[in-house]
Amino acid sequence: MKIAVLPGDGIGTEIVEQAVRVLNALDLKLEMETALVGGAAYDAHGHPLPEATLKLAKEADAVLFGAVGDWKYDKLDRPLRPEQAILGLRKNLGLFANFRPAICYEQLVGASSLKPELVAGLDILIIRELTGDIYFGQPRGRRVSPDGHFPGAEEAFDTMRYTRPEIERIARVAFEAARKRNKRVTSVDKANVLETFQLWKDVVTEIGKEYPDVELDHMYVDNAAMQLVKAPKKFDVVVTGNMFGDILSDAAAMLTGSIGMLPSASLNSSNQGLYEPSHGSAPDIAGKGVANPLATILSAAMMLRFSLNQAAAADRIEAAVQKVLAQGLRTPDIHSEGTTKVGTREMGDAVLKALG
Ligand code: NAI
Ligand code: MG
């Protein structure tokens, strides 16, 4: 089982280090190879996704990714920015299905931004389409506006786009996932104003007919945002496009206590996957040894389960994380009165110990 380890920038290196320690402690035959990505790769090789890194990722059974990005790269041309590395990996590996489970662990009910009764027992799964939508649609660019409210003014434009096959495959992923859970899918769109999402809604409805055992409903994205903070437990599986999924999953993160708790998996059609925390490189706390490594450690667990067929090992990691939380250990992002504040490495140590 070959794993490409791509720590990236900012807290990426600190949190991935802890996840690698946990993986090494499992006594599985894992072959891990590390490579530079993002700003770190740009600094060393002048490109955020060097050929060698892409090759390693393609040849691996799975990729464990930290995070990329820093304000200091904001002035670079877009193709050279660190964030292009993650878009490039998604595109090149065909990673179209992004799984973002939002689970509120019993021990963190009090850390949520919502009232305990709204999040106790929360377990929802947001499935975000990753290869289409406004992030990739052409044309895009800047020009002098030929028409509109201010003809002659400078304007920028991106194109929102989805094709039927892209929607079909992500819809199937969502219905299949719901079958293994509570058999409900909420498809989130903006069909009332966007043609892209009218197609989305039509196609999801059609695919839904193949899954009569799964209940399907549709919700506009603005209402979905409201429902997520009003009554999040009403959701089971939420499926949506690339941009809405990006935003809604960060909102869902806060329900669980901290974005530092939220793992993610991005899969292609052959179950090869990239696993990363849902958060970014957190430049504001990078290098301070205080980042929460649990999202990355839980991402490693998802990797074992989804891409490496090691469900028992994944269960062990998840149980260890819960045990550590039950012991009252918290990184600053989830620390509250009555709990013990620890740093990144101490949290890693505690998880290792809890693995037994
Ligand atoms: P961010 O997720 O890096 O940080 C948002 C806030 O959450 C910050 O206050 C940060 O300190 C905190 N935070 C994030 N992860 C944490 C952790 N593990 N433990 C404790 N606190 C944590 O998002 P932001 O600030 O919008 O972006 C920072 C950089 O990350 C940007 O360059 C952005 O482009 C990049 N980014 C990269 C992603 C990726 O690599 N997949 C995803 C999102 C953003
Ligand atoms: Mg995001």
Notes on the protein architecture:
The protein is an alpha/beta fold and 356 residues long. It has twelve helices and 14 strands. It has a ten-stranded mixed sheet with strand order 2-1-3-12-11-4-5-10-8-9, with helices on both faces. It has a two-stranded antiparallel sheet with strand order 6-7. Helix 8 packs parallel to helix 9 (242-255). The longest helix is centred in the middle third of the chain and has 16 residues, at 164-179. The protein is globular and about 65 Å long. The structure holds 1,4-dihydronicotinamide adenine dinucleotide and magnesium ion (MG). Magnesium ion (MG) is lined by residues 246, 250. InterPro entries: IsoCit/isopropylmalate_DH_CS, IsoPropMal-DH-like_dom, Isopropylmalate_DH. Mg(2+) binds at residues 222, 246, 250.
CATH class membership of the largest domain: Alpha Beta
Tell me the structural class: alpha/beta
CATH topology of the largest domain: Isopropylmalate Dehydrogenase
> Main β-sheet: number of strands, strand sense, barrel status?
10 strands, mixed
Strand content: 15-25%
Per CATH, the superfamily of the largest domain is Isopropylmalate Dehydrogenase
Pfam families: Iso_dh
Domain Isopropylmalate dehydrogenase-like: 2-351
Main location: cytoplasm
Catalytic activity: (2R,3S)-3-isopropylmalate + NAD(+) = 4-methyl-2-oxopentanoate + CO2 + NADH
